[in-house]
């Protein structure tokens, strides 16, 4: 028997990619035509966006917790959230959660360690790049994180909230992200973390001069491993 995966959705493109990966790759873990039971719950993205813009992360935490309770009631056995930024609001509620969580930054950090990376360029929303979610998981492993300049962080954030979360993928955005990855390479990075769950839709492996850590698919595969373990 496999475990039932509960997805706390925030932005729909990242959540959809995570769900699709779980279903598409289920056969690799469980056999042909098989995948674990999956349930996803979404509140309006506004319930996350506006409080987070105002720094009301405790309000975001309560919204996530309510979504987790709904998934637990339905029968989920493990929780994931394919949204990097709101993990700053997940960390404080882990002990109050009705179910165990798989943490997106922890999964990315473990993959970076497994591949032997020592310096990783971090791309995500501005709060994510400036916040504690990834340093908390990378620093104990001795992996250095680099972020772009303030002006570049602001531009990355704008591309994410104005375009990527709506599934808008433009050549100008791709070129901008590629230029940042090239900058990371010049700074001695041996990988780039695609740590907004929509970035992998824009930057595929062939678009990057550095090996990429796809946070969305890494989380999905971690959930598959957990579910397949029964």
Gap between N and C termini: 5 Å
Number of strands: 7
Widest sheet, order of strands: 5-4-6-7
CATH architecture of the largest domain: 3-Layer(aba) Sandwich
Low-confidence stretches: none
Mean pLDDT: 97
Measured as a percent range, the helix fraction is: 40-55%
Question: Could you say which structural class the secondary elements and strand pairing correspond to?
Answer: alpha/beta
How many separate structural domains? 2
Quaternary structure: single chain
Plain-language structure description:
- With 230 residues, the chain is of the alpha/beta class.
- It has two domains: 110 residues, Rossmann fold, CATH 3.40.50.1860; 103 residues, Rossmann fold, CATH 3.40.50.1860.
- It is built from eleven helices and seven strands.
- A four-stranded parallel β-sheet has the order 5-4-6-7, with helices on both faces.
- Strand 6, helix 10 and strand 7 form a beta-alpha-beta unit.
- Helix 5 packs across helix 11.
- The longest helix is centred in the N-terminal third of the chain and has 19 residues.
- It is globular, with a radius of gyration of 17 Å.
- The mean pLDDT is 97.
């Amino acid at each position: 028997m496999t475990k039932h995966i509960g997805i706390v959705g925030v932005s729909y493109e990242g959540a959809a990619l995570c769900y699709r990966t779980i279903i598409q790759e289920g056969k690799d873990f469980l056999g042909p035509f098989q995948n674990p039971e999956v349930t996803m719950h979404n509140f309006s993205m506004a319930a996350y966006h506006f409080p987070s813009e105002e720094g009301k992360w405790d309000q975001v935490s309560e919204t996530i917790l309510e979504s987790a309770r709904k998934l637990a009631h339905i029968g989920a056995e493990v929780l994931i959230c394919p949204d990097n930024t709101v993990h700053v609001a997940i960390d404080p509620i882990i002990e109050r959660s009705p179910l165990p969580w798989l943490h997106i930054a922890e999964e990315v950090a473990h993959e970076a360690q497994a591949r032997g990376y020592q310096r990783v360029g971090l791309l995500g929303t501005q709060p994510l790049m400036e916040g504690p979610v990834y340093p908390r998981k990378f620093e104990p492993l001795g992996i250095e994180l680099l972020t772009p300049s303030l002006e570049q962080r602001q531009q990355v954030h704008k591309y994410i909230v104005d375009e990527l979360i709506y599934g808008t993928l433009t050549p100008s955005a791709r070129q901008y992200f590629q230029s940042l990855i090239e900058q990371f390479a010049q700074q001695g990075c041996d990988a780039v973390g695609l740590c907004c769950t929509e970035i992998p839709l824009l930057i595929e492996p062939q678009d990057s001069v550095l090996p990429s850590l796809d946070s969305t698919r890494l989380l999905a595969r971690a959930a598959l491993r957990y579910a397949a373990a029964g």
